[in-house]
Specification:
Elements lengths: L12 H10 L4 E3 L5 E4 L3 E6 L5 E9 L6 H14 L4 E5 L4 E9 L6 H23 L5
Antiparallel strand pairs: 1-2, 2-3, 3-4, 4-6, 5-6
Helix pairs in contact: 2-3
Length: 137
């Protein structure tokens, strides 16, 4: 793995794929061209168009019968406990999205990216167990 700092000037999809390969993280490219990892869960790795941030996302289905007020309480509790990955309810309360943004201003090391990705991939499992189990599809 190259130790060259990842910055807005040099972040590319190819570079991110090289970092994931070097870290032995299994991934694929989806139909939108996004990097999708399989490290404990399906996680989308997105360098934003402005290249100032790498966004990590994981998606989960929610039960249609979930009580909205209770679900929002669970979102708030999860976001208080797991500040690195914020939980958001979307699609008219049918989907739960976890997202973390990694700013690239000043640069980050490839090791930091890999460690952040691995930490991020653990959070949804813990948060779903601790806060969202009654609402899962």
């Amino acid at each position: 793995m190259s130790d060259e700092t990842i910055t807005p000037d040099n972040v590319t999809r190819d570079r991110l794929q090289g970092i994931l390969n070097a870290a032995f993280i299994d991934y694929s490219i989806d139909s939108d061209g996004d990097i999708v990892t399989r490290d404990r869960l399906k996680c989308v790795v997105l360098p934003l168009a402005a290249k100032s941030t790498i966004t990590l996302r994981a998606y989960f289905g929610l039960s249609e019968s979930a009580d909205r007020a209770e679900l929002l309480e669970a979102v708030n509790a999860s976001n208080s406990e797991y500040m690195f990955a914020r939980a958001v309810v979307v699609n008219d309360f049918r989907s739960l999205v976890f997202q973390a943004d990694i700013p690239l201003a000043g640069g980050i090391s490839p090791k930091y990216l890999v460690c952040s990705l691995r930490r991020f991939c653990q959070i949804p499992h813990d948060a779903c167990r601790d806060h969202f189990a009654p609402f899962m599809d």
